[in-house]
Write a sequence for this structure.
């Protein structure tokens, strides 16, 4: 979606900044905010570039750096950590061939860590884009990643 | 685990599992929005005093009286001087549930979103607000969807928007959803207001409190999801009924979310005063207990000696523990508390906004210290300095787990274990 | 917030009286209790970030930051004890752990001072390992004027707040969070951000994370010779600047805190525009033209020649064959002696300067309506009034520091209406933007006046009590504007009817309202009428005569106001007394020690008229002090011919200019930084100018040159030891300055009228009466007249001209600063993208603009800032002289020229292909 269409859905008030940034990031299919996006937002809201960029870099779910088509957010809260997150991380890194913070060369996945996802009753958990996955183990991970690769 | 455990006392979770959260009819059939009608027929002050009488304490973690918050907000609101429009006042629902080990608000929003909306509308009536915001963390995809759907239905039915006029408020109550974007600190009420205004999540200087100077500088009532979702029941059945539950200093019920080394992790709404033993052994099925972390990362470690202490604000305080958000993380024998503590401190470092020096530098130093296996007392000393000198509750948090560790597990961090 | 009430607070047992609501940390410091603190600054809202001003307060739990506490009665504070000092040392230790200690002596470092105070200078005394390198901080050196080094940054928010709260720009933010957070401008690349280089952030940075780039390699704080407080030589705000001098050169400029008009604020020109003073192209000796070349000669030779030649013209053709251009850039003392010289030595009133080219129409209309041509208010009022109507005034670029007050006002609820045919940055802050076609201001304002009548928003009591003719005059005005219905006005101006109605209501209904009017209004053939219409609207709504109400024409140059105040006018003696006033002439003659007949009694020629007269041979000798008509005057081809026809032209300046090319003698003058004196700013405040450095070569102060030349022409104009003595004479000559003396304006200037030594000066004019004979204001109903110059098939565009933030006037000074040039140093023309497409022109192309009067080439920029059919060009760049295209046609009332409206055509500059291929 071009930025202007997304922008016009919201009144031009700074209080809508986070909503707009989410929509631009998720609606673009790019999973990150380009400088063109940020510039359009600044102009639309009549605020400075730094006001937009400062917000975009403060919040961990927003990115101003290119990311893959799917963003994996692995929970590294104390609970998931205790319940096996480090092992899950290793498995994921092997499956994807990238380390945490990196994007697969084919541009399909970006692997990130997240603060508590609030799914502690099914630790270890992760999100891929908007979808949750809990009780993760090696077979489950292989299945899930495989499905995304095929899709 | 939608089914309630027979020993639970479900008030805020009463509809969970028995209604379809996407159908307002289900909620109405279960008696929904009855309390709203009752509240709107009451004078604002009467609603506020009912909540004060119920001694409902904020369920987000800080435990401040919800009724008093409303009273203060109401008092800070300038009386309208016709023909000028009434000065704005807001209700903000804090649905930025980020405390590790906590997911009670998510359950309410996913399973019974109308209950939250009804609670917000009653609070809005009480303080005379025409506008309310629900600030939901963006990680809660399902919650966002369900609340959004519920708001559409509430509007169609006239509970919000144009037809929801509450007497004397001068019109309708509009409720809007706003999203977080990955910041634990935005769960702190003043920081949340900054974020709601579209800014970086920095805490504000306190005082003034939000009841006086809140969103867009206007008096603002900020309440947690669970707190607001408790209000309809109190209005429906009265303060006297509510104070009959729980203990004198901690009346009512609380949702606890139990995770870690238990057979049945999940959420349990019980009367305050229930013991930790009942909760984690009886309900959740713990075994071979080493430690429990109560209240999440900004919580406290306890050992088995606390198992028979009632879960309520004062009794836990005596044990050097806090109730906090209701997170209960169970660690069985063999678990490393160093590892758990390291994870907690790394989390704090990641979430420190960087505004004040003690928290910004202190969090980084603490992580380095624990990785270098420095003695626990050194960490406690830093955390004490941070607690005394930091700007907001985040910098005041590490002292909770660290000091409780020193009390219950003094040898754990210094040892070679982990 | 202060309530004006005093309370008693106890700090460490000391009883201190302070204003209730004032900041505790500030109060403590002002009383000598030096509580440390790095994030607090008295000009900023408290932040509470550095945690160094930690105290304990009776009745409050825990530690409390003094900077976050408002003083109230009975406050009991512990500011110093072992525990608090230990907490501070702990915090400093933390700061040092993330901080890069390197220090090169180029900035004052508040962190270093505290590090010393708490005994942490030796790294061995610190408890925590330094982790600065591991964090991997970066530096941003891309700005032309400053550098940011995150490793030196203590994240105190002072720069961010300086930019937002003081300058109203909000260009800065933090990026990332936690220990990795660092300051950014724009998208983390300073040079591409909206930063306009004012350097407020640099001035407020406590640690040298932000430092000026210019002179960074030379400046060393321990080698500074002196710091001299003076007045900025650029626009008419009159900012107080502190010139830092090292090895005889100005190496740094800071804003002076605590005093009006700027209270520490500066713009990019004020802070980074003083390098011209030491520029190698400065004139250092007198020059005389021989065989077409200007060659260096001695002062004696030059002055002898001038005295002879001017004397011969005076004696051969009469005094009125001579004329003088005074200077809006020179001091009052220089200008006062210049008018004295022209009147006493030449014996003519052919005396004017560039005010005729900017605000003459404004002043004419104001003099006729309300009796004074100066601004009615103080700069602070721009933040305090309820509604501000800014018309034809690109304030953010032309008066950047005044604009900071406006932006602050908007933040606290002031309604801002901007009226301008061209988008200006102020539009971003405006509630209403009216965009009339060029040359239709009277129609717009008459429309607003009609609407005010329609809605009965007239202040009847004000009309009865303070307007000549009361209700009758009002009826006459009403008749005159009756035809200007919103719909009619929309067709004339293109301003939507509903917007006009809203603007009229907003202005008229505001409890207090002010007007800022600029060149867009004045530089038209209808300039005086434009301002009459504006004043009519102000008068009928009673938006003058009270505090925070009135009309203010911000002055474009540092001393435009003062030069007229001290009599550089063909019609007025010092103090705005007409030359025709015989009693005054006698008084002046007595003051000057001459007989009354010596002083000319008839009004002289004005700026453009002098050029016309030169063209016709009626004026044969011209003395120009610090002006550059070959850039600033309209219709430059005509101006050049005029100058060429002069028998004798003397130009006195600090640089060779476009005008010195035509001079017979060029005299080297001292710059503002090399002399004592005073300027008068836009709010009538008389401000001191002080000598900071020596003049280069043989350059001399203007007034000394005048004194000596008068001597040689046999008509001495006085013996003065110093500028101070001249000012004492000015105070006697101009009654409104009578109470002002150097002694009284040592730290802060005084606003005239100040008639007596015990008079405090006047912040707002006309509170009691207007300066008209009967004390009442006069309505001057006017009609819209279609501009005489219109677009045609041959010349389809209307060209507007104006100024830029980074350059100034004819650029003689500003373009001799690399810092300013690195922002903008070339001419361009703005054209609406629709027009550009229609003309098949693209952004960045070279184009030729031409009309019947002349032509120029420049670069095209397609921009929505201008409406279709209109063009805009900055006029600073002499290689693309806008005034080749402007007209010499004058406003009949004020003799101002219409710089804002010239029909012209635009074509691509053909790029020739090499023949024969």
């Amino acid at each position: 979606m071009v930025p202007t269409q997304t922008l016009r859905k919201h009144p031009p008030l700074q209080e809508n900044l986070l909503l707009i940034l989410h929509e631009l990031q998720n609606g673009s299919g790019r999973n990150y905010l380009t400088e063109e996006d940020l510039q359009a937002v600044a102009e639309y809201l009549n605020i400075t570039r730094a006001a937009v960029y400062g917000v975009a870099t403060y919040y961990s779910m927003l990115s101003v750096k290119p990311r893959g088509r799917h963003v994996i957010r692995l929970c590294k809260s104390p609970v998931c950590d205790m319940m096996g997150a480090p092992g899950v991380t290793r498995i994921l890194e092997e499956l994807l061939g990238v380390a945490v913070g990196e994007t697969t060369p084919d541009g399909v996945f970006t692997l990130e860590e997240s603060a508590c996802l609030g799914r502690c009753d099914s630790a270890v958990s992760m999100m891929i884009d908007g979808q949750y996955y809990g009780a993760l183990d090696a077979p489950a991970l292989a299945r899930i990643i495989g499905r995304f690769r095929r899709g | 685990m939608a089914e309630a455990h027979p020993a639970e006392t479900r008030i805020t979770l009463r509809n969970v599992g028995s209604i379809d959260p996407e159908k307002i009819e289900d909620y109405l059939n279960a008696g929904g929005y009855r309390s709203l009608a009752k509240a709107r027929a009451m004078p604002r002050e009467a609603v506020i005093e009912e909540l004060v009488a119920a001694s409902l304490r904020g369920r987000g973690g800080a435990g401040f009286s919800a009724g008093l918050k409303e009273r203060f907000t109401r008092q800070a609101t300038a009386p309208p001087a016709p023909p000028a429009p009434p000065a704005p006042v807001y209700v903000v629902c804090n649905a930025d549930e980020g405390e590790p080990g906590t997911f009670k608000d998510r359950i309410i929003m996913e399973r019974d979103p109308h209950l939250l909306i009804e609670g917000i509308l009653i609070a809005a009536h009480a303080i005379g607000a025409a506008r309310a915001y629900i600030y939901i963390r963006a990680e809660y995809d399902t919650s966002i969807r369900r609340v959004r759907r519920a708001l559409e239905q509430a509007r169609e039915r006239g509970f919000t928007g144009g037809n929801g006029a509450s007497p004397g408020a001068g019109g309708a109550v509009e409720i809007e959803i706003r999203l977080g974007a990955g910041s634990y600190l935005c769960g702190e009420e003043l920081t949340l207001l900054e974020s709601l205004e579209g800014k970086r999540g920095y805490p504000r200087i306190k005082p003034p409190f939000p009841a006086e100077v809140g969103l867009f500088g206007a008096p603002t009532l900020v309440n947690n999801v669970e707190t607001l979702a408790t209000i309809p029941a109190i209005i429906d059945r009265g303060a006297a009924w509510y104070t009959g539950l729980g203990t004198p200093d901690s009346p009512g019920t609380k949702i606890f979310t139990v995770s870690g080394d238990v057979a049945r992790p999940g959420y349990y709404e019980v009367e305050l005063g229930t013991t930790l033993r009942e909760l984690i052994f009886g309900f959740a099925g713990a075994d071979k207990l080493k430690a429990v972390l109560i209240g999440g990362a900004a919580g406290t470690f306890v050992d088995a000696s606390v198992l028979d202490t009632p879960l309520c604000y004062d009794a836990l305080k005596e044990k050097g523990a806090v109730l906090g958000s209701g997170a209960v993380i169970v660690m069985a024998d063999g678990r490393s508390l160093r590892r758990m503590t390291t994870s907690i401190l790394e989390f704090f470092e990641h979430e420190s906004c960087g505004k004040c020096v003690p928290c910004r530098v202190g969090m980084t130093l603490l992580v380095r210290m624990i990785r270098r296996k420095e003695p626990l007392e050194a960490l406690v000393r830093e955390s004490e300095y941070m607690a005394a000198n930091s700007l907001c509750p985040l910098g005041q948090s590490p002292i909770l787990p660290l000091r409780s560790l020193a009390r219950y597990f003094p040898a754990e961090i210094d040892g070679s274990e982990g | 917030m202060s309530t004006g009430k005093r309370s008693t607070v106890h700090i460490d047992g000391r009883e201190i009286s302070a204003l209730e609501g004032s900041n505790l940390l500030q109060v403590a410091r002002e009383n000598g209790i030096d509580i440390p603190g790095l994030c607090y600054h008295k000009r900023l809202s408290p932040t509470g970030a550095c945690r160094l001003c930690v105290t304990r307060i009776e009745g409050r739990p825990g530690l409390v930051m003094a900077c976050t506490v408002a003083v109230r009665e009975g406050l009991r504070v512990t500011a110093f004890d072992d525990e608090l000092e230990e907490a501070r040392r702990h915090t400093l230790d933390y700061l040092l752990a993330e901080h890069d200690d390197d220090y090169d002596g180029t900035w004052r470092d508040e962190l270093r001072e505290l590090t010393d105070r708490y005994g942490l200078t030796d790294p061995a005394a610190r408890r925590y390992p330094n982790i600065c390198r591991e964090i991997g901080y970066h530096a941003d050196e891309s700005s032309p004027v400053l550098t940011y080094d995150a490793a030196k940054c203590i994240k105190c928010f002072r720069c961010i707040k300086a930019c937002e709260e003081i300058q109203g720009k909000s260009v800065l933010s933090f990026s990332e969070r936690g220990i990795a957070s660092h300051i950014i401008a724009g998208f983390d690349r300073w040079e591409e951000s909206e930063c306009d280089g004012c350097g407020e952030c640099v001035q407020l940075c406590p640690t040298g994370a932000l430092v000026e780039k210019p002179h960074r390699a030379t400046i060393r704080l321990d080698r500074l010779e002196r710091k001299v407080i003076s007045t900025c030589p650029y626009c008419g705000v009159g900012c107080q600047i502190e010139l830092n001098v090292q090895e005889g050169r100005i190496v740094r400029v800071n804003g002076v805190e605590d005093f009006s008009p700027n209270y520490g604020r500066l713009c990019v020109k004020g802070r980074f525009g003083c390098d011209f003073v030491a520029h190698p192209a400065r004139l250092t000796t007198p020059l005389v033209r021989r065989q077409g070349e200007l060659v260096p000669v001695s002062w004696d030779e030059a002055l002898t020649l001038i005295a002879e030649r001017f004397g011969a013209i005076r004696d051969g053709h009469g005094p009125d064959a001579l004329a003088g251009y005074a200077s809006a850039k020179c001091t009052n003392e220089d200008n006062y002696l210049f008018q004295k010289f022209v009147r006493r030595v030449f014996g003519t009133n052919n005396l004017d300067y560039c005010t005729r080219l900017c605000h003459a129409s404004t002043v004419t209309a104001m003099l006729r309506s309300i009796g004074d041509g100066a601004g009615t208010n103080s700069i602070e009022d721009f933040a305090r009034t309820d509604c501000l109507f800014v018309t034809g005034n690109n304030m953010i670029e032309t008066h950047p520091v005044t604009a900071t007050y406006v932006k602050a006002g908007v933040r606290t609820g002031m309604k801002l209406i901007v009226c301008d045919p061209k988008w200006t940055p102020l539009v971003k802050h405006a509630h209403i933007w009216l965009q009339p076609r060029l040359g239709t201001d009277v129609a717009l304002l008459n429309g607003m006046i009609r609407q005010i009548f329609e809605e009965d928003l007239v202040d009847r009591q004000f009309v009865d009590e303070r307007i000549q003719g009361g209700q009758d005059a009002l009826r006459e005005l009403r008749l005159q504007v009756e035809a200007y219905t919103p719909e009619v006005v929309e067709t004339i101006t293109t301003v939507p009817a509903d917007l006009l109605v809203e603007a009229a209501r907003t202005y008229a209904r505001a409890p207090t309202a002010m007007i800022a009017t600029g060149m867009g209004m004045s530089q038209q053939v209808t300039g005086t009428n434009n301002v009459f219409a504006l004043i009519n609207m102000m008068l009928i709504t009673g938006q003058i005569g009270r505090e925070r109400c009135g009309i203010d024409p911000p002055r474009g140059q540092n001393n435009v106001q003062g030069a007229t105040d001290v009599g550089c006018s063909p019609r007025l003696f010092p103090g705005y007394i007409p030359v025709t006033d015989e009693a005054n002439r006698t008084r002046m003659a007595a003051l000057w020690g001459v007989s009354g007949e010596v002083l000319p009694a008839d009004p002289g020629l004005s700026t453009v008229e002098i050029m016309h007269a030169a063209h016709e041979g009626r004026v044969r000798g011209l003395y120009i002090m610090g002006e550059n008509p070959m850039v600033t005057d309209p219709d430059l081809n005509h101006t050049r011919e005029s100058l060429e026809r002069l028998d004798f032209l003397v130009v006195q300046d600090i640089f060779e200019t476009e005008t010195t090319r035509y001079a017979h003698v060029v005299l080297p003058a001292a710059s503002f930084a090399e002399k004592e004196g005073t300027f008068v700013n836009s709010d009538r405040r008389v401000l001191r100018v002080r000598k900071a450095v020596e003049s280069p070569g043989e350059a001399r102060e203007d007034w000394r040159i005048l004194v000596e030349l008068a001597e040689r022409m046999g008509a001495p104009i006085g013996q003065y030891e110093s500028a101070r003595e001249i000012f004492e004479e000015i105070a006697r000559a101009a009654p409104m300055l009578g109470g002002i003396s150097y002694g009284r304006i040592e730290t802060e200037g005084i606003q005239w009228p100040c008639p007596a030594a015990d008079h405090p000066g006047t912040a707002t004019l006309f509170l009691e009466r207007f300066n008209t004979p009967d004390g009442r204001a006069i309505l001057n109903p006017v009609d819209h007249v279609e501009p005489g110059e219109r677009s045609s098939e041959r010349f389809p565009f209307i060209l507007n001209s104006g100024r830029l933030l980074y350059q100034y006037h004819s650029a003689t000074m500003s373009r001799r600063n690399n810092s300013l040039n690195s922002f903008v140093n070339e001419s361009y023309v703005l054209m609406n993208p629709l027009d550009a497409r229609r003309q098949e022109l693209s952004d960045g192309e070279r184009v030729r603009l031409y009309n019947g009067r002349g032509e120029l080439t420049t670069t095209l920029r397609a921009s929505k800032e201008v409406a279709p059919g209109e063009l805009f060009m900055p006029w600073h760049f002499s290689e693309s002289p806008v005034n080749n295209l402007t007209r010499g046609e004058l406003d009949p009332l004020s003799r101002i020229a219409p710089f804002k409206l010239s029909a012209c055509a635009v074509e691509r500059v053909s790029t020739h292909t090499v023949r024969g291929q």
